[in-house]
Design a protein that fits this description.
By secondary structure, this protein is of the alpha+beta class. The protein folds into two domains: 2-53, no CATH class; 63-205, Beta Barrel (Sortase, Chain: A). It has five helices and eight strands; from the N terminus they run H-H-H-H-E-E-H-E-E-E-E-E-E. It has an eight-stranded mixed β-barrel with strand order 1-2-3-4-7-8-6-5. The chain starts with a helix and ends with a strand.
């Protein structure tokens, strides 16, 4: 009987102790616990949050700085000058037949001329790019848009299959890729593409 009373007494004491601890914990440390847990879940310690808020603006030129207004599909967005051919060709945003019938098309999925990465232009071999085969390594391609004038130098000439998607892959530097159907004298739908890969050498912004 004495052992039963002793067990009940110990159980009651433990229960009271747990309750008191819970009250103390909730009133003194709950705020700190909740704050720490929240920061842990979001992977953002207090010091990191402050650094993010006060981080100085980057000095790098962004897409928005070069082109505050992005061109719309079908809109004339500039011109391509090819010194070797003494030819000035209008550039339209988009590569649907509507754009290619009027001039050079800019692949909408690529960056705009002058921006870092790969800006892709294409045109028909029997219209705007009839003499593009005369342009090769070392020749210049000059693009003029609302953002300024951008001079590229051809670094490589490629002949690829018509379904080759490497033409539009991202590049680690400012690149202009110009393509047209190939061979130039082929009758019907040409099976290949003549591709010029040029790197930006100078620019005049404004």
């Amino acid at each position: 009987m004495k052992q039963l009373k002793k067990r009940r007494f110990l159980l009651l004491s433990c229960t009271i102790a747990i309750i008191l601890f819970g009250v103390w914990f909730s009133t003194t440390n709950m705020y700190k616990f909740a704050k720490g847990y929240f920061l842990y879940k979001t992977h953002a310690p207090s010091s990191q949050v402050k650094e993010t808020v006060h981080k100085p603006p980057s000095n790098k030129t962004t897409k928005e700085e070069l082109y505050p207004v992005r061109p719309k599909t079908g809109e004339e967005m500039g011109e391509l000058y090819i010194p070797k051919l003494k030819a000035t060709l209008p550039i339209f945003h988009g590569t649907n037949e509507n754009e290619l019938e009027k001039g050079v098309g800019h692949f909408a999925g690529s960056v705009l001329p002058g921006e870092n990465d790969n800006s892709v232009l294409s045109g028909h071999r029997d219209t705007v790019f009839r003499k593009l085969g005369q342009v090769g390594e070392g020749d210049l391609l000059i693009v003029r848009t609302s953002a300024g004038e951008f001079t590229y130098k051809v670094n490589k000439v490629r002949i690829v299959d018509e379904d080759d998607r490497t033409v539009i892959v991202p590049k680690p530097r400012a690149t202009l890729t110009v393509s047209t159907c190939y061979p130039f004298d082929y009758i019907g739908s040409a099976p290949e593409r003549y591709v010029l890969v040029a790197y930006l050498t100078s620019k005049t912004v404004g």
